[in-house]
Specification:
hydrolase activity; alpha+beta; hydrolase; 202 residues; 11 strands; GDP-mannose pyrophosphatase; four-stranded mixed beta sheet; Nucleoside Triphosphate Pyrophosphohydrolase; NUDIX_hydrolase_dom
Amino acid sequence: MSKGKTLGPWRITDEREIFDNPWINLADHKVIHPDGTPGEYGVVRFKNLAVGVLPIDAEGKATLVGQHRFPLDKYSWELPEGGGKRDVPPLDSAKRELEEETGLRAREWERLCEFDISNSVTDERAVCYLAWDLSEGEAAPDPSEALTIKQVFFKDLLEMVMSGEITDSLTIVMVMTAYIKALHGALPEPISTLILAGLPQK
């Protein structure tokens, strides 16, 4: 953004970089609000695209990754996810993240959803995929990460979301989107059958 630029109903009168590293940029903007009053708007801009994967095996089990999340100081069970460079196709980044974190590869991929993660303060965007027809390899996680892997049936994963045990946004969106799409016949039949096994279908 630049000084004097109009952004929807806001007008930017000044911009100052507060912080920058290889992953994020934080900027403070002096603005004129839609009602004409002056104010400030801080924006965190992410340099990578978030990617997530819901991998489901032939038994209808999804693979979860557990790790302690530093910003929240809490342990979190999540579907495989990470970041990809913006000039790299998101599917390529999703395939890399899945294999690095779990050792899994998938022959079948379906783009599941795309959404803004926290649009009041950041431009971070996520692209998520459904993956099936899996084969196992060897995981190669980032040495700085301490990951735990477990498998759960999709119906149990849905219950973890519904009960609040899972609070990760990408995981919640992927699980609910997959369930709704399967219910409405918006996914290929083989994967819909695995997702809906043991679940109400009305």
